[in-house]
Structures are given as structure tokens and as C-alpha cells.
């Protein structure tokens, strides 16, 4: 049985009602309004929705929060009958041109934010954004380890993918499992998964051959977090010399019964209370994060309203921890 999460309908759950006068790191929310790595319309609308929220405007006024919208080349999903998209299809890589160009813009924005000593939260958009955000982050923090929270492994290559949807392959691109014109930046030894429960056979072969650690959803409980943290540190830092993290969080990693507004939902996922505790545990040791695959077009009524409240709660939680906790590493 999954933990039940109480969602407040009014007021701020985590964000202080007083103006923040001092904070350890400013949060910079980078909107990535892009659906071109997958087949459903909707994820491109989530950043615009977020940026229009009064509660986010109030957070900006209090200080320590800023936002930026990436001007992607084409927001539409890869099924759109759009000449620009159709001409970008390659074998095993649908809409490649727009994914590449839009992620290149995100790469530059992510690196710029980190160099400004901000904590970037890249809010998508589909998970193909991981190509751009991680490429940009690695320019500033080349030894950073990746905590990948997702229902899927996202390491498909053009040869292994069944759909050609590039939101299923960001790990393959940043780790150099396929050639695409840029040098790989991620060692698979610097990657741990949380919540994966659906994959292509070739992806699980990769996990087993490379001995990449992964935590099933049933192991992701608040009570086990101290043990999980100890295991993560033992694996990543056997010599005790720690490096910071980047968190790549696909909302479909959360159980579908607790968050339904996403394009590739899976049951038996991570409970939301675990994710809130995960943020408390790992954000102080991270340099930034992705938050992807929110799609309110795929839910309706009270379910949509509940999920919007959950997104607010997640953003407020992330911001609160970033502001409150001193980073456990030296800023560049």
C-alpha cells in the first residue's frame, strides 16, 4: 500500500510566508516548453501554466526565485503533421532536428545558470530535455553524479527504440551509446536509477552489463532513505571524495494513483512522500535538477486540480530546501 499524501488546497505548504532576506542559493526555473521528443500534445504547455501561477509570482516577489523560458524551435509533439517536424525524422530518431536544436539552447541556458551560482530547475516539457540539461550541467560540473528518478530507463538508442521517441533515450545520448555529433559527458558508473519498472530488453541488458544500481519502487520508502543514501555514497564515492549530484526527475516515476497527469504513466510507482523526503536528502548535495513530463491534457476534473496542487507542492518544496540548506559542496 502506498503512502497517502495530504495536499493543501490553499496557502503554502513549504515556502515561508515572510520575505526571504537571506538564502543559500537562488532558484532559477528554466521552462522548456517542448513536446517534440514524444507523441502526445500537452507537456509543452506545462511551463506556460507554471509561469502564469500567482503563487509563483509571489515566490518571485519574496526573492531568491527567477524564471526563464527557452525559445524552442518547435513546441509540437513528434506526431504533428508539420513540415518542419516531418523533415526532421530520421531512422529511430523522430523529430531529431528540433530535439537537437532545442536541447542545444537548453544546454547553454543550464550552463549559464550554474555559472551564475543559481540552482536551475528545468521544468519541461518531455524528458528529451535531459540531453540539453545534462550536457550544460557537465560543462560546469564534469564529475557530477546523476540520480535518475523515472518509470523508464531512458537509454534507448536508434537501434533499440520501438517508437523513435527521443524522450526514451537521453541517457544514451549523454553517455555516448549512440553517435550524434557531441562528445559523451556521462560515465554510466556515475548513474543510479530510482523507480524504473518498464524497459526495452536492450536497456536491461545495459543495466546488467554495466552493473548500474537501481531501486525498485517498493524499496523507495521514507524509512529506507538513510540506508539508500548510505548505499549511494558507498557506490559513488568508495574513496570518500564526494561530488555533487544532478537530479533528473520524470513525474511518471511517481505512482499513477498519486499523479495521473503524465504521458507514460505506470502503476506501482514511487510514493510522493518518498520524493519529498528525497528532496530533503539530496537537494543540499545537488547542483540542479530536471522536472519533466507533466501533461495536464491527460487528466480531467478533480484529478487535474489535485495534480496541479502537487506540482505547486513540489516546486515549493524544492525552493524551500535550496534556500534553507547550505550546499554541501563549493560553488564554482
What features would you describe in this structure?
- There is one protein chain.
- The protein has 332 residues and is an alpha/beta fold.
- It has a single domain, classed as Ureohydrolase domain (Arginase, Chain A).
- It is 34% helix and 12% strand.
- It is built from 10 helices and 8 strands.
- It has helices at 46-51, 54-62, 83-86, 96-115, 129-140, 170-174, 201-210, 225-236, 272-282, 301-324, and strands spanning 27-32, 65-69, 119-124, 145-149, 191-194, 214-215, 245-250, 286-292.
- An 8-stranded parallel sheet has the order 2-1-3-8-7-4-5-6.
- Helix 4 (96-115) packs parallel to helix 5 (129-140).
- Mean pLDDT is 93; it is low at 1-13 and 15-21.
Outline of the structure:
The chain has helices spanning 46-51, 54-62, 83-86, 96-115, 129-140, 170-174, 201-210, 225-236, 272-282, 301-324, and strands spanning 27-32, 65-69, 119-124, 145-149, 191-194, 214-215, 245-250, 286-292. It is an alpha/beta fold and 332 residues long.
